[in-house]
Amino acid sequence: MGRELQKRKNRSSISKVRRKPKSKKKIIHNAIVAQGWDKSQTLAQNYERIGLAVKLNKHVSAGATAAEKAKRTAPLAIKAKAKSDHIEVKEAKVERDPETGEIVRVVETKKFNPLNDILNSDDESDKEEPQAVARTDIVRELEKEADRPATRYKRKQSENEKQFIAELVAKHGQDYTAMARDIKINYMQRSEGDLKRRVRLWESDGGN
């Protein structure tokens, strides 16, 4: 019985529904990014090479070495302390005037560390130099594009709307209350504020 049903299905004129495979083609809307895109690489690899972050709050390591990347992503890496308003207590050796007792010069300055804590020592070798942010040519072009002032869109009136406004202005002038109450021309019952905006746009376009 099963084979007979299968034969009927094969002879049926109704075509089988087949789902199209999902396209793996990446659609890139930005022309600058599209120029530097490598189809043989993954999205994360392309973004890293270009100098963009795939996820938010992630380090951008374009052009960085493997050691620098490992240093940034190390889970036990000691992060630099944030600046605060707290004043650090320090020790200083000074030289005083034997007669007046005034401080003449500061001989030595070091961090206040009464317990001789190694982690609290004022060692210059522990200070990390600020890392320069790697910027590629594509990132610079994207920054230039972002700095350009956005062009403001101005709505254009259709010919029917222009004719509609022209008839109202010819009949009522600047009386927007009468325009709103004119059921014959203003059959859509537009409000006074709406008509005022449309008249201003019509006048800015030349009133034709």
What's the short version?
By secondary structure, the protein is mainly alpha-helical. The chain is built from 8 helices and 2 strands; from the N terminus they run ααααββαααα.
Main traits of this protein?
8 helices; single chain; 36% helix; two-stranded antiparallel sheet; flat; Ribosome_biogenesis_Nop16; 208 residues; mainly alpha; Nucleolar protein 16; ribonucleoprotein
Task: Give a structural overview.
The chain is mainly α and 208 residues long. The chain has a domain at 159-205. It is built from 8 helices and 2 strands. The protein has helices at residues 2-11, 31-35, 43-50, 66-73, 137-147, 159-172, 176-181, 192-204, and strands at 90-96, 103-111. It has a two-stranded antiparallel sheet. Helix 6 crosses helix 8. The longest helix is centred in the last third of the chain and has 14 residues, at 159-172. This is Nucleolar protein 16. Residues 8-26 have a biased composition (Basic residues).
